[in-house]
Amino acid sequence: MMTRRMVHETTGSDGIRTLRFDLDGRSTNVLDRAAIGEFHAAVARAIADPAVTAVLLASGKEDFIAGADLEMVREFADPADLRDATLRLHRTLRDMETCGKPFAAAINGTALGGGFELCLACHHRVLGDRPRTRIGLPEVTLGLLPGGGGTQRLPRMIGIPAALPLLLEGRRLTPQQAMQAGLVDALVPAGEEEESARRWLLAQAAQPASQPWDRKGYRVPGGDVQSPAGRQVFFAANAMLRAKTLGNYPAPHRILSCVYEGLQVDMDTASKIEVSHFVAVALSPQAKNMIRTLFFHMGEVNRLVRRPSGVSTRRFGKVGVLGAGMMGAGIAHAQATAGLDTVLLDTSMELAGKGRDRSRRLLEARQAKGRLTAQAVEATLARIHPTTDFADLAGCDLVIEAVVEDRAVKAEVTRKAEAVVGADCLLASNTSTLPITNLAGASARPGNFLGLHFFSPVERMQLVEVIVGRETTDTTLAHALDYVRAIGKTPIVVNDARGFYTSRVFSTYVREGLAMLAEGVRPALIENAGRQAGMPVGPLAIADELSLDLIERINVQTRRDLGAAYVATAADEVIASMVHRLGRIGRKAGQGFYDYPQEGGKHLWPQLGEHFVPAPVQPGVDMLVRRLLHIQSVEAARCFEEGVITSAADADVGALLGWGYPAAHGGPIGYIDSIGVGRFVAECDELARRCGPRYAVPTSLRERAAAQGAADSPAGARRAGAAH
User: Fold this and answer.
1) Mind listing the pLDDT tens digit for each residue in 502-527?
2) What's this model's pTM, rounded to 2 decimal places?
3) Cβ pair 329, 358 in contact under 8 A
4) Are 398 and 319 in contact (CB under 8 A)?
5) Handedness of CA 265, 268, 274, 276 (dihedral sign)
6) Which of 105, 292, 404, 517 has minimal Cβ neighbours within 10 Å of its Cβ?
């Protein structure tokens, strides 16, 4: 008798066979190879057993099934192996649909991806109404497509226009939304799912069960692929996808192909079409990169694996924020939303009150969308206490300064805060550029001092860069990570250095775009190359958003700090020219590299080419894309060599969440691994010859490439074989 890992079978006196998912040794159910094999065998037994009149799918866990085991997906390397395994699941689901016995799913909690695809193959779906339950097919968010029939059953069930957004955006629906969208047949109070599903099964047992798409005369709701409405939907979706992804993400395009091709044939043929596209996507470098960073690395970071061990968890009740500008107000809002009492301090009650009012506007916007009650809005606002009096910081567990980037001002507020808080209070700076160790010099307890670099706008940006100063203690770091978790953000841990990690690496993207402009590359070509690299916007547009005068001030300060060690670049000259000669300082002034008309929108400044004259021969966009991506990875590798960052997970998660690095490449470290370290080093050597020493790779990366090359050589392969 096979030892079951997940599927537990029981048959009642009513003839209903229950297949209960309860994966041994895991808190959640996931579909791995063994579980899929068990499910296949259990379905076959239920169909073959004449005593079984109906089948109920249920869960023994708090949730139904979280989806496929992504570790299993990563293990596949042979397309034929993956194709056979996926086709086996499809055959099982088709057996459920066509055997004549009714199948029903009692969905007691979250059912995502492959877990929900099992439900779609059932003839009836009952969902329990729990606030935290989510239903959907989110595979596209990890570079995949639904591989268990989701691209075929969902549009056949609810129509093409309704299904495509769910498939292409990977939306996760609440129970109410799932019911309204037609993804389930019944919504019942939590705990009544199985009883409701059993009643339906008993009512259906006397007649053969079938799916609508297997019945004669079936038509796709709202029109099929070749109908006028269907053609219009695909024309629009294809254009929007191309504009949004620029070819960097194959999964959404293949999802669209699955739906378009599959809905023109019968379900069995459609299954084979979906499997073919699924295999191609699952083995693509984009999917491997996204799964590694967005799932495995993100999980590692959120589990706080770099939290020092042996330090007790700290709970935060009251936190002070110094400075009620955009960043300080955003931090205060995040804390209050998470339930923390917040002292919001500024130089006047008017400024402090404006910071609190910003939170009110954000909360009332959510209230207007039905996401918050009026009582919840007022309760959150009541946690923010505007003040000008440092004495109000007494009793704080943490004080974060978010004042202007001026060392003297930061030192003054640090000393004033320290004078009233307890000895165990943490002190943090939200600086994005100034070294934390230097700022800690103003503190009487530098061991309690560290950096907490938030990103703007705080309410939308998930990342917090936790910067460890030279004297920051392990206890301080551990408790800072506890704080970041408490407010629902994602932390990466970085050692102190100028620009830390995120600002330092991100700046290379902007500065490379400015260098291209100085070289005579046309501005539109620079911006298009940035987008084609997968970045959210081009480097010139980002420079405008940051504001050119701020970049110039940082350049001047860095030059002063480094003295003779400072290396001036073409990017410095471009910024200085824009600010001092042309008086264009960026979006906040309505004019920078772009013009920003009062009526809205933006366009490149038409006279930009007069001041930065285009070269007669323009480079290919592929070369520009390579430069914009390689320069970020070179700087990230330097950060590793210098010990600024010590984890690939922190490096890549920080890039994706911090500055919108393209997930398809996995992050600047993942990008090196994706294209191969040897190839990367060779291409950087060529770029260094063409563009300058900023592309010179660090020694450790060159040594790694050499070692890998030796291992890949015939002699190296023989040595490796002998070692085994």
Assistant:
1) 999 999 999 999 999 999 999 999 99
2) 0.91
3) yes
4) yes
5) negative
6) 404
| Residue 285 CB neighbours (<10 A) | 17
Closest CA to 506 of 667, 366, 688, 343: 667
Residue with tokens 């006279």: 607
The pLDDT of residue 225 is: 92
Question: Cα angle vertex 220, ends 215, 225, to 5°?
Answer: 130
How many CA atoms lie within 13 Å of 293's alpha carbon, on the beta-carbon side?
29
Tell me which of 453, 479, 630, 665 is the catalytic residue.
453
Task: Give the type of residue at 207.
Answer: Q
Quick one: which of 643, 639, 619, 598 has its CA closest to 470? 643
- The class of domain 502-632 in CATH terms is mainly alpha
pLDDT digits (tens, 9 = 90+) for 442-494: 999 999 999 999 998 999 999 999 999 999 999 999 999 999 999 999 999 99
640 phi, psi to nearest 5 deg = -65, -50
Please say whether the beta carbons of 318 and 442 come within 8 A: no
d(C-alpha 341, C-alpha 383), whole Å? 5
CA–CA gap between residue 102 and residue 206 (Å, rounded): 10
> Under 8 Å CB-to-CB from 595, ≥6 apart: which residues?
602, 603, 604, 605, 606
Residues in the chain: 724
Residue pLDDT, tens place only, 412-445: 999 999 999 999 999 999 998 889 999 999 999 9
Domain ranges of the chain: 7-283, 318-500, 502-632
Q: What's the N-to-C CA distance of the chain in angstroms?
A: 37
Is residue 158's pLDDT more than 90? yes
Q: Per-residue b/e over 242-259, b at no fewer than 16 CB within 10 Å?
A: eeebeebbbbbbbbbbbb
CB-side neighbour CA atoms (13 Å) of 412? 10
Q: How far is residue 479's CA from residue 311's CA, in Å, rounded to a whole number? A: 8
In CATH terms, is domain 7-283 a member of 3.30.160.270? no
Selecting from 3.40.50.720, 3.30.56.10, 3.40.50.1000, 3.30.750.44, what CATH number does the domain 318-500 have? 3.40.50.720
643: phi > 0 → left, psi -120 to 50 → alpha, else beta; which?
left
If 0-12 CB within 10 Å is exposed, 13-18 middle and 19+ buried, where does residue 530 land?
A: buried
How far, in Å, CA of 567 to CA of 558, rounded?
Answer: 10
Exposed, middle or buried, 375 (CB in 10 Å: 0-12/13-18/19+)? exposed
The pair of three-digit structure tokens given for residue 98, joined into one six-digit string:
């066509």
Of all residues in the chain, what percent carry a pLDDT higher than 70?
A: 97
Domains 318-500 and 502-632 share a fold: no
Long-range contacts of 436-441 (CB under 8 A, 24+ apart): 436/467, 436/468, 436/469, 436/472, 436/496, 437/469, 437/470, 437/471, 437/496, 438/407, 439/407, 439/410, 439/411, 439/414, 439/469, 440/469, 440/470, 440/471, 440/472, 441/411
Question: Is 453 noted as a catalytic residue in this protein?
Answer: yes
Give the integer Cα–Cα distance in Å for 568 and 571.
8
